[in-house]
Design a protein that fits this description.
The chain is mostly helical and 332 residues long. It has a domain at 103-331: MetI-like fold, CATH 1.10.3720. The protein is built from 14 helices and two strands. It has a two-stranded antiparallel sheet with strand order 1-2. Helix 8 (191-218) packs antiparallel against helix 11 (249-264) and helix 11 runs antiparallel to helix 14. The radius of gyration is 29 Å and the shape is flat.
Length: 332
């Protein structure tokens, strides 16, 4: 009997035509070519976006790294020529006591407090929203999203007005309660109070994003898990920590990493505060120090070195957090 139509002889894999030529010189079958095209299709679709990202992000980043190894001041900006000085900017940066005494502690300390406060407040608001009726939930979400939509500059001036030395709401309330004299108090002259106001500003603008994101995750947690934990006698905290949090671990990873990136490089909320944009001030963080060094003191090489340090710090924090997250997933 003859071989049925479509059956491949010689033990060849289904979907591949048998080669009639010498071994090793046949063409790949249509199925193999189809698999290659399917593997290349996602990269072809992503190519335009990757090209735009490379042009908008990678080139400026490479330019900053290049500037950090050169002496680039105002005269170099005019002439277009600069001198290669190697790691001199980094040596000056790491031997400057201002980095270790002011800029780095302000950046790291503020970011830790702001990230924890934003995630905790956003999670509490999300838990509250999950208990509301749909109509009420929509109204509340619409109200809190106003803070998220408010520009950083506008939000900063609102908090400046609240903590104004003479006519601020806080000063008037404390004066009415007898805790503050008629002379008022300059909240922005003290390093601790300065960053306390900045934390309030950043948390006010950042918690709606965390709340809405965590709420979306809460609505996907099966109700049966909570009912089973409730039958086992678990309280509200145990149900959240042992049921809700493990399910929403990827959601918390996303909001924590994004909040960390945003709060480490916060700029407007510090720069616009009184004393926050003055060179040598005790209030500068790495982001504002980069701007002050580059455009205030016209030392673009040093400003670029500070920017590179901030970028490496962000990458290190993100990598450590992701590594810890993935390690916990592997151990489960």
């Amino acid at each position: 009997m003859g071989t049925p139509v479509g059956q491949v002889t010689g033990g060849a894999e289904p979907g591949l035509r048998a080669s009639t030529g010498p071994p090793g010189r046949g063409r790949p079958g249509p199925a193999l070519g189809l698999r290659r095209r399917r593997a290349l299709l996602p990269w072809a679709l992503l190519a335009p976006a990757l090209a735009v990202i490379a042009a908008l992000l990678l080139f400026p980043l490479a330019r900053i790294v290049w500037l950090s190894f050169r002496e680039y001041r105002l005269r170099n900006l005019v002439s277009g020529e600069s001198d290669f000085i190697g790691p001199a900017n980094y040596v000056t940066l790491f031997t400057d006591s201002y980095l270790w005494r002011v800029a780095l502690p302000n950046t790291v300390g503020f970011a830790v407090v702001a990230v924890v406060s934003t995630v905790v407040l956003g999670t509490l608001v999300a838990l509250l929203l999950a208990r509301l009726r749909p109509v009420t939930r929509v109204v509340v979400v619409s109200c809190i999203m106003v803070a998220w939509a408010m520009p950083a500059v506008s939000g900063t001036y609102v908090w400046l007005w609240i903590f104004d030395v003479d006519d601020g709401i806080v000063a008037q309330a404390l004066q009415g309660l007898g805790f503050l004299g008629p002379e008022g108090y300059n909240w922005f002259a003290d390093r601790l109070f300065f960053y306390a106001v900045v934390v309030l500003n950043v948390v006010h603008g950042g918690f709606p994003f965390v709340a809405v994101t965590v709420l979306a995750g809460l609505l996907t947690v099966p109700r049966e898990l909570h009912e089973a934990a409730l039958l086992d006698g678990a309280g509200a905290w145990k149900r959240f920590w042992h049921v809700t949090f493990p399910v929403l671990r990827p959601v918390f990873a996303v909001v924590t990493i994004l909040s960390t990136i945003w709060d480490f490089k916060v700029f407007a909320q510090v720069y616009l505060m009184p004393g926050g944009g003055v060179g040598g001030s005790e209030m500068l963080n790495l982001g504002v120090w980069t701007y002050v060094s580059s455009f205030g003191q016209r030392d673009y090489g040093m400003g670029s070195a500070i920017a590179v340090l901030l970028t490496l710090l962000l990458l290190a924090v993100t990598a450590v957090y992701l590594r810890a997250l993935f390690r916990e997933d592997e151990l489960r």
